[in-house]
């Protein structure tokens, strides 16, 4: 990663925590281009997009946006919304599971209450034959998130998995432990700003580790989601799977709503399993900023939309 890219990424990720900028963005952002990456403010709007994607052979994971609540009471509304999502998916017979952030459920405020909230959601999903993915947030929550998933599996609730970020030094050891317990994982490069003491800073190092942990999971036979828009990683994965007789049903590619949609459709037509991460909700700003930080082209898209208004 060159110096200019590092500065660009650092500046945007810093803005993710700026409340003044967030307030301005929430007022105008969807009009200026955030709706390219966010499927609306309501569940009903998001479900319409799920139907469209399913008709194209693309699976979905629905995410009700929000993170880092300030009052534990807020977690109850997030929990209730996820219970509503799971019921709505079942009623509409959609091919979709759900993703949630532990901090939505109160992880940083009350870990015990957070666990109970998540367990209630996972139980309801289990009852209706669905799956819950615990998104991985920044490093202060890595160990706690993994612990929640392992504890739920120990209770017999195996319809839950989490995410491993390739840029963290610890990820290879986490992969070994979680694979031994047959826990479903989504593998990503990582989208938070982390210090060099715990995370690789050079993209070449991140890419090398990403391929390494993908290989570990493909070889294991435990179902794995590979979240990337990188053509080189996608082709490498397809070739590795073909060369080692790994069936397409053993893994899936995951991509973000609004990013490389033609490629998602193309992979689905090839017979690959493809899942689109579809976020919605009123608390979309931090998510949106991280999407901008990943690709300068996303910022140009927003600027073009601003100039049209």
Automatic annotation (TrEMBL):
<keyword id="KW-0274">FAD</keyword>
<dbReference type="InterPro" id="IPR002872">
    <property type="entry name" value="Proline_DH_dom"/>
</dbReference>
<comment type="pathway">
    <text>Amino-acid degradation; L-proline degradation into L-glutamate; L-glutamate from L-proline: step 1/2.</text>
</comment>
<keyword id="KW-0642">Proline metabolism</keyword>
<dbReference type="InterPro" id="IPR008219">
    <property type="entry name" value="PRODH_bac_arc"/>
</dbReference>
<keyword id="KW-0285">Flavoprotein</keyword>
<keyword id="KW-0547">Nucleotide-binding</keyword>
<protein>
    <recommendedName>
        <fullName>proline dehydrogenase</fullName>
        <ecNumber>1.5.5.2</ecNumber>
    </recommendedName>
</protein>
<keyword id="KW-0560">Oxidoreductase</keyword>
<dbReference type="InterPro" id="IPR029041">
    <property type="entry name" value="FAD-linked_oxidoreductase-like"/>
</dbReference>
<dbReference type="InterPro" id="IPR015659">
    <property type="entry name" value="Proline_oxidase"/>
</dbReference>
<dbReference type="GO" id="GO:0016491">
    <property type="term" value="F:oxidoreductase activity"/>
</dbReference>
<feature type="domain" description="Proline dehydrogenase">
    <location>
        <begin position="47"/>
        <end position="302"/>
    </location>
</feature>
<dbReference type="Pfam" id="PF01619">
    <property type="entry name" value="Pro_dh"/>
</dbReference>
């Amino acid at each position: 990663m060159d110096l200019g890219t590092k500065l660009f990424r650092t500046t945007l990720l810093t803005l993710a925590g700026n409340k003044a900028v967030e307030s301005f963005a929430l007022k105008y952002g969807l009009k200026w281009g955030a709706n390219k990456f966010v499927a609306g403010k309501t569940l009903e709007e998001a479900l319409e997009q799920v139907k469209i994607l399913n008709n194209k052979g693309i699976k979905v994971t629905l995410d009700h946006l929000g993170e880092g609540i300030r009052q534990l009471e807020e977690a109850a509304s997030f929990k209730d919304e996820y219970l509503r999502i799971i019921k709505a998916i079942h009623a509409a017979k959609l091919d979709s599971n759900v993703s949630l952030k532990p901090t939505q459920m109160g992880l940083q405020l009350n870990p015990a209450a957070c666990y109970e909230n998540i367990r209630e959601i996972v139980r309801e999903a289990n009852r209706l034959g669905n799956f819950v993915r615990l998104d991985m947030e920044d490093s202060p929550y890595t160990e706690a998130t993994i612990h929640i998933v392992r504890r739920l599996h120990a209770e017999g609730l195996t319809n839950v998995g989490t995410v491993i970020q390739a840029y963290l030094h610890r990820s290879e050891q986490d992969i070994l432990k979680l694979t031994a317990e047959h826990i479903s994982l989504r593998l990503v490069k990582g989208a938070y700003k982390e210090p060099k003491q715990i995370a690789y800073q050079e993209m070449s190092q991140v890419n090398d580790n990403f391929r390494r942990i993908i290989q570990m999971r493909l070889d294991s036979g435990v179902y794995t989601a590979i979240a990337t828009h990188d053509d080189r990683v996608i082709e490498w994965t397809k070739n590795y799977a073909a060369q080692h007789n790994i069936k397409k049903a053993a893994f899936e590619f995951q991509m973000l709503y609004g990013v490389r949609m033609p490629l998602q459709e193309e992979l689905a037509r090839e017979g690959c399993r493809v899942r689109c991460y579809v976020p919605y909700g009123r608390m979309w700003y931090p998510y949106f900023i991280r999407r901008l930080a990943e690709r300068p082209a996303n910022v140009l898209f927003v600027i073009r939309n601003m100039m049209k208004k």
